Amino acid sequence: MFLVGLTGGIASGKSTVVSVLRELGCAVIDADVIARQVVQPPFQAYQRIVQAFGPEILLESGEINREALGSIIFSQPEKRKLLNTITHPEIQKEMLKQIIKYFLLGYRYVILDIPLLFEANTLTRFMKHTVLVYCDPQTQLSRLMLRNRLSQPDAEARIAAQLSLAEKVKLADHIIDNSGDLEATRRQTLKLHTLLEDSLDFMLVRLLAVATMTGAGCFLYFLLRPLVF
To answer: C-alpha angle with apex 23: 14 to 195, nearest 5 degrees?
Structure first.
């Protein structure tokens, strides 16, 4: 099994591509879903966020108001960095658990849906392939304004808080252009899936895993042999 990092820009249509991949039966780990989980009260990250940003970011239910927190971190880069240092270790821990699960289930590859894959730049070294969902800047701006009901200045500020799609294009191994209609995006996604399924990269990873486990087993055998015989 090997890892594929999937990313995009805000409102570039990454969720559309993920939906198609799930229809194809792919294993997808959504970093956003995990990020929402780790900031719930049972997790340590929740307490640290409340301490760092204050109780004014909480809803009456005690849960974190994501819109209020989002307004802070999009306007204050140092606050965004602070939030990332709190949440990223917890997110990565949960992602690792799911990766192990899919490995044991025998999947050839696992897609890690990570919106800020290139911005964080901590997980790219673990990815065999990186995929960018792209759309042209005007389409991205229009989609974001419509989806989030934002004014143009607010939408532009949120886009500017991320690395531009033009820069991400230079970093990605594969590009899915989502500027057009759904069928065009679906065809590109299917083509990528076929390429990844036909890849033999997963065999090397499995051979290494088997060799590691075999070596560890042999070591334990010789270590414990005097105690058994």
So the answer is: 75
- Which class is domain 2-198? alpha beta
pLDDT tens digits along 84-111: 899 988 998 999 999 999 999 989 999 9
User: Distance between CA 69 and CA 84 in Å, rounded?
Assistant: 12
Quick one: tokens of 155? 């939408």
What is the model's pLDDT at position 116?
87
For the chain, which residues make up each domain, given as ranges? 2-198, 203-229
Q: Which residue has the tokens 């090997």?
A: 2
Better-predicted residue by pLDDT, 1 or 173 = 173
Q: What is the pLDDT of residues 31-56, one digit of tens each?
A: 999 999 999 988 889 999 999 999 99
Element (H, E) at 175: strand 174-177
From CA 206, how far away is CA 103, in angstroms rounded? 9
Backbone torsion region of residue 162, taken as left when φ is above 0, otherwise alpha when ψ lies between -120 and 50, otherwise beta: beta
Using the predicted structure, report yes or no on whether residue 188 has a pLDDT greater than 80: yes
- The secondary structure of 10-68 as a DSSP string is TTSSHHHHHHHHHHTT-EEEEHHHHHHHHTSTTSHHHHHHHHHH-GGGB-TTSSB-HHH
Return the residue matching tokens 């499995």: 206
- Write out the two tokens for 27: 């294993």
How far is residue 223's CA from residue 212's CA, in Å, rounded to a whole number? 16
